[in-house]
Specification:
The chain is of the alpha+beta class. Helix content is 33%, strand content 44%.
Length: 150
Amino acid sequence: MSRSGAFCTIIAVFTMLTVGVQQPLAADGTEEVKRLEQALGQALLAGNAAAYGGMLAGDYAVTNATGDLLTWDQEVARLRTGEMRFEKLEIGDLAARRFGKTVIVTGKASQSATLMDREVSGEFRFTRVWIKGKGGWKAVAAHYSRIAVP
């Protein structure tokens, strides 16, 4: 084998060892977090404040579609007291990307809901940040934007 042929073989083997090995999708946590997004939606739909709050980190913050910044306490209290009620909530178009112990999820929510007896139904895009800690995955932040109707 020529010197250049040996060099090319070494480079090819090194590339396969360092780049070609990928973890299965399920092992990277993104599919688990997508399932948690669906479970979070089911907890909201059922009005289950305990289940919903249990999926959120204690310092969770959400910017809702009206621009209000809410803490964990405020968000969970709205569900617990019935100030926030969902008649329909469909979560879809989920995409998730992992960065170390963090997964960022984007998705679409279609809802029929009321907030403090005010109609807040519509289509929304959202981004939620999940962090993996000792207790598993917890949502730490979210942002919602209403999809404009043409």
